[in-house]
């Protein structure tokens, strides 16, 4: 079976879905697939979304990726660093970011891998993950679904909180903790299992549940029927290819830019 | 008449070993790099660096062995996500770290700026950040009774901030589209040293039209150091953009010999030779805004 869309395009469409019912919030997509997904969501089913030029202005039209030529952004407001946090504290944001590790509670890590004092890998640092995770909705994108990314036990350094009562203040779920989805190269996961357990929401075309489970460091909930991740529509593909990503940055997200339907 | 102007040597002479220094800017934007290079050339040692939004300032001082302790939320070169010198130092355990969330750092600076011991927040709860840093919680005394994190105040001995214009009194303008949290850092500091693209007359600051670009009053500022292109290789929009080509050279300088070469060409030289080495005023002045 062949497909007329790539895995990256499938993931962009699946990531866009996280913002479908959000209404008027700031959509923040960090790294190529999440950012294109935010633009796609705004350009199609949720035009009320706000987004930035990835620098300092809110823009009415999603800014295309890569060199822009004569394209001029259409700013509609200011989103300075200070205002970014003011908005976070008000909760009107849904971020889709790409951590390095996620555990069964939905806790994530982008700080260090290995022993904390002398880490095997020093990454960016916790950035704004702690504050994001306790103030507004969050979803995650993992381009490489395996047991190094979806880990057994807890992540090496808990940068964003999740559904782990042992870490909650007074053991009570924080009011604004709201984890939505994890989109990977194999499947879409959500937190709608028992007690917010991570569940397989859909499997990408040609991927089986057992493979996804084998590549995950913790047990996944399996609904009776697991749907297939919907293919991007022709309208979505045109928008992504011609408007949002005219230089094809999405083609380097996955090695070899594989098709969206696995043969 | 007050005159707070200093040259780079006089600036370095105002600092001492073991000081806590705060650095303004954000990743690859408006970092006080001329001041940072002057510190890298100096004999100063055992510095605690408060660089919550770190970029090549952190990497350069790490590679120069100046850091005893680093307080930060991230270190990034933006287009090049990881700074190799920061990475190498941290992985070797070369300096102590206190890692903060970006918003938690803002709150801690604000507490310091307000001369408060802490400010309450939810940010950090449930994560490893407050546990590692030994932060304490505080319960709301009101009916909600919510358990909150007491974000401890950050104070620094001296803050280094790059601005676009300053007069000799210490009145400043930050003309960038985003001033970041330099105002909070300045108020959380015992002394503030601003490097400036240009020292101008008070009249030439263009008040009141530019009033919104005036980040803090002059009583906050201790020293004004004229440093044209002093943020390079980071950007000082709208005057000039980020030098991605230079950052590429910097990122490639991780190995000992490459670092020695980089240091000889770009650190162990005065401002005039530096500007020449990076292509001159015309080139740097024409660096375009980055594309994200």
Description:
- The complex is a heterodimer of chains A (263) and B (292).
- Chain A has 263 residues and is an alpha/beta fold.
- In chain A, 21% of the residues lie in helices and 18% in strands.
- Chain A has six helices and 13 strands.
- Chain A is globular and about 50 Å long.
- With 292 residues, chain B is α/β, with parallel strands linked by helices.
- Chain B contains eleven helices and 14 strands.
- Chain B has helices at 8-13, 33-41, 56-63, 84-91, 102-113, 128-133, 182-187, 244-251, 256-267, 271-277, 280-285; strands at 5-6, 20-23, 47-50, 53-54, 67-72, 74-75, 96-99, 118-121, 137-139, 147-152, 156-166, 172-173, 189-199, 223-226.
- In chain B, strands 1, 2, 3, 5, 7, 11, 12, 13 and 14 form a nine-stranded mixed beta sheet that branches. A three-stranded antiparallel beta sheet of chain B has the order 8-10-9.
- In chain B, helix 2 (33-41) links the parallel strand 2 and strand 3 (47-50).
- The mean pLDDT of chain B is 97.
- Classes of the chains: A alpha/beta (263), B alpha/beta (292).
- At the A-B interface, helix 3, strand 9 and helix 4 of A face strand 6, helix 4, helix 5 and helix 6 of B.
Structural descriptors:
heterodimer, A: 263 residues, alpha/beta, 6-stranded mixed sheet, 3-stranded antiparallel sheet, 21% helix, B: 292 residues, 9-stranded mixed sheet, 11 helices, 14 strands, 30% helix, globular
Question: What is the fold's blueprint, element by element?
Answer:
The complex is a heterodimer of chains A (263) and B (292).
Chain A: H1 7-16, E1 26-29, H2 32-43, E2 51-52, E3 57-59, E4 75-78, H3 81-90, E5 93-97, E6 101-102, E7 108-109, E8 112-113, E9 121-122, H4 129-133, E10 137-142, E11 178-184, E12 187-190, E13 199-203, H5 209-214, H6 234-244
Parallel strand pairs in A: 1-5, 5-10, 10-11
Antiparallel strand pairs in A: 2-3, 3-4, 6-7, 8-9, 11-12, 12-13
Helix pairs in contact in A: 1-2, 2-6
Chain B: E1 5-6, H1 8-13, E2 20-23, H2 33-41, E3 47-50, E4 53-54, H3 56-63, E5 67-72, E6 74-75, H4 84-91, E7 96-99, H5 102-113, E8 118-121, H6 128-133, E9 137-139, E10 147-152, E11 156-166, E12 172-173, H7 182-187, E13 189-199, E14 223-226, H8 244-251, H9 256-267, H10 271-277, H11 280-285
Parallel strand pairs in B: 1-14, 2-3, 2-11, 3-5, 4-6, 5-7, 11-13, 13-14
Antiparallel strand pairs in B: 8-10, 9-10, 11-12
């Amino acid at each position: 079976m062949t497909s007329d869309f790539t895995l990256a395009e499938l993931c962009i469409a699946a990531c866009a879905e996280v913002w479908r019912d959000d209404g008027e919030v700031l959509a923040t997509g960090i790294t190529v697939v999440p950012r294109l997904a935010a633009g796609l969501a705004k350009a199609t089913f949720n035009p009320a979304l706000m987004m930035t030029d990835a620098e300092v202005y809110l823009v009415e039209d999603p800014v295309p990726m890569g060199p822009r030529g004569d394209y001029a952004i259409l700013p509609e407001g200011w989103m300075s660093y200070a205002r970014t946090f003011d908005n976070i504290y008000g909760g009107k944001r849904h971020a889709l970011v790409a951590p390095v590790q996620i555990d069964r509670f939905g806790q994530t890590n982008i700080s260090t891998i290995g022993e904390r004092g002398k880490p095997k890998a020093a990454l960016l640092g916790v950035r704004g993950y702690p504050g994001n995770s306790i103030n507004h909705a969050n979803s995650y994108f993992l381009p490489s679904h395996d047991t190094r990314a979806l880990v057994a036990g807890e992540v090496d350094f808990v940068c964003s909180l999740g559904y782990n009562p042992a870490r909650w203040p007074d053991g009570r779920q924080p009011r604004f903790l709201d984890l939505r989805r994890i989109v990977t190269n194999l499947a879409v996961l959500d937190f709608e299992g028992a007690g917010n357990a991570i569940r397989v929401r859909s499997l990408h075309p040609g991927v089986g549940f057992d493979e996804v489970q084998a590549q995950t460091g913790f047990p996944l909930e399996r609904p009776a029927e697991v749907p297939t991740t919907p293919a991007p529509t022709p309208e979505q593909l045109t928008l992504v290819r011609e408007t949002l990503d005219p230089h094809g940055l999405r083609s380097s997200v996955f090695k070899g830019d594989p098709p969206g339907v696995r043969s | 008449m007050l005159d707070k102007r200093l040259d780079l040597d006089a600036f370095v002479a105002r600092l001492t070993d073991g000081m806590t220094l705060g650095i303004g800017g954000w990743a690859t934007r408006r970092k006080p790099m001329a001041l940072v290079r002057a510190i890298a050339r100096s004999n100063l040692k055992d510095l605690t660096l408060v660089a919550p939004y770190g970029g090549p300032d952190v990497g350069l001082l790490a590679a120069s062995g100046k850091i005893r302790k680093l307080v930060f939320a991230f270190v990034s070169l933006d287009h090049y996500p990881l700074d190799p010198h920061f990475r190498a130092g941290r992985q070797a355990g070369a300096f102590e770290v206190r890692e903060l969330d970006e918003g938690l750092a803002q709150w801690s600076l604000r507490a310091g700026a307000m001369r408060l011991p802490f400010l309450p927040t939810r940010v950090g709860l449930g994560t490893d950040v407050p546990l590692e840093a030994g932060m304490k919680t505080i319960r709301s005394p009101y009916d909600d009774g919510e358990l909150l994190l007491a974000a401890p105040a950050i104070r620094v001995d001296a803050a280094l901030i790059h601005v676009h214009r300053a007069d000799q009194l210490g009145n400043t303008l930050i003309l960038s589209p985003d001033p970041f949290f330099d105002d909070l850092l300045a108020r959380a500091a015992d002394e503030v040293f601003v490097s400036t693209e240009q020292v101008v007359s008070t009249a030439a600051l263009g008040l009141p039209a530019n009033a919104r670009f005036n980040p803090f009053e002059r009583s906050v500022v201790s020293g004004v150091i004229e440093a044209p292109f002093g943020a390079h290789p980071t950007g000082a929009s709208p005057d000039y953009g980020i030098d991605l080509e230079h950052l590429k050279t910097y990122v490639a300088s991780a190995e000992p010999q490459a670092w020695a070469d980089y240091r000889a060409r770009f650190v162990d030289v005065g401002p005039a030779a530096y500007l020449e080495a990076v292509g001159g005023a015309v080139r740097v002045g024409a660096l375009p805004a980055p594309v994200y």
